[in-house]
Amino acid sequence: MPATVWKGYLSFGLVSFPIRLFAAARPEPVHFHMLHKKDLSRIREVFYCTAEDRPVERSEIVKGYEYEKDRYVVVEPEDLEKIAPPTASTMEIIQFVRVSEIDPIFFETSYYVAPEGAVSRPYALLFKAMQESGYDAVAKVAMHGREHIVILRPAEHAIMLHTMYFVDELHKANEVRATTSSKFDKKEIDLAKKLVDTLAGPFEPEKFHDEYKQNVEKLIEKKRTGQKITPVKQPRKAPIIDLMQALQQSLAKTSGGKTSTSQRSAVKKTSHKGKTAA
User: Residue 56 forms beta bridges with which residues?
Assistant: First the structure.
């Protein structure tokens, strides 16, 4: 059974029922160990007390908040338990929204929402109601040392949960604004739209893979077996001199043997008409 990330109650109006959260995804990079260069032995992390000039055990460590330079308030786990909000044990649905109203920049981490024990009737009812209404739920839950605003949405088989950033956590100062002063020829816009249409298609996530991770795994195997490491060939990027020419060349390269979205639609309509006439 997967590890439970959070468990408690989901509150929907006056209806409450027990649920559990399981991680829906996590990065899977190649993990390296820190080694002593001299003899390749494992390096162990050591907690060190600068005042006593000695290493300390984990049992000797407490958490502290620095409120002034070198002055701390010690906060014990029991202290945090005392001030935990109700959302630490009960996830409360605040409102329902259309997911199209939410900017994806707010989404953080995804979880599966499972009913506790046997399939819960209230859980199934909420799932069905969201499916048929087209609404997602906004809720609050406290976990991992902080309170989150979350989105609950009906996926194909069950309810999914996505934690969200608060507005004050968005780095607005880093926001990039595209220039609107540029003027484009109609031919440039038409070619750019045609290039978009040529590259359009259904999203198939199984087609995408971490090439960097695969290359690292190949590198490790080659080093292990004493093979020569050959650098990956990098594409040459020439500066764009003629935008129209670059668009035309891109279109010629991508459209070779590929049917555009508009062409596929036309084929489907023709096929549909033929079947109706028959």
Answer: 47
